[in-house]
Design goal:
This protein is of the alpha+beta class. The chain has helices at residues 3-6, 94-108, 127-134; strands at residues 16-18, 22-27, 30-41, 47-59, 62-74, 77-88, 113-119, 137-142, 148-150, 153-160, 163-169, 173-174. It has one domain: Immunoglobulin-like (Sandwich). The strands form three sheets. Strands 1, 2, 3, 4, 5, 6, 7 and 8 form an eight-stranded antiparallel beta sheet that branches.
Length: 179
């Protein structure tokens, strides 16, 4: 363990408390999400990163994406914050593709997923902080999506191209998958 994180009473290996991930978008290469996170700072000092702090998102020690936080301050004790992530797997890396599929499958079946965040040294520009960040590794269980797969939807329609109406509706679809 690196001396800076060792002096913080084991901060480098504290565990994560994770909420249900909320899918916020996607593109051809992956899935964006945000997740409520609680992290315990066992130190007596506040730790802050006044920029983007980035981590590799791992499942079974295989990188399946990235996760990050903006302007994070961790006071002594528990701190709750939102982290944003991107699940993507290099198509040429079959292990990464398989791991990403497993995570998404477990999540959609409401099963807990054990994940690890490993600090990315290059997310910091100050050399001493690069070493500190690369020494961080936090793990935790993320709960599955639960039964509510879609919570809100809007239907847009128009009789003619120039006359458009928006109807707001709450749509609840139960996840009954058994795959």
């Amino acid at each position: 363990m690196w001396p800076l994180t060792e002096g913080c009473h084991g901060f480098a290996s504290t565990s994560l408390e994770l909420g249900i991930a909320k899918i916020t978008g996607s593109d051809a290469n992956g899935l964006r999400f945000e997740i409520e996170t609680t992290l315990t700072n066992p130190s007596d000092i506040t730790t802050s990163a006044q920029s983007e702090l980035s981590f590799h998102l791992k499942y079974n020690d295989i990188i399946i994406g990235n996760i990050g936080m903006h302007d994070l301050s961790l006071h002594p004790g528990k701190t709750m914050f939102k982290a944003h992530g991107y699940i993507t797997a290099d198509p040429s890396d079959q292990q990464a593709v398989k791991s990403a599929r497993e995570v998404l499958s477990q999540f959609s079946k409401s099963q807990k997923v054990f994940i690890t965040w490993s600090g990315i040294a290059d997310s910091m520009s100050i050399p001493v902080l690069k070493t500190a960040v690369s020494g961080l590794q936090w793990s935790g269980e993320a709960p599955g999506i639960g039964k509510q797969l879609i919570s809100k939807s809007a239907i847009k329609w128009g009789m003619f191209g120039w006359l458009k109406r928006t109807i707001k509706a709450d749509v609840y679809i139960t996840n009954r998958s058994t795959f």
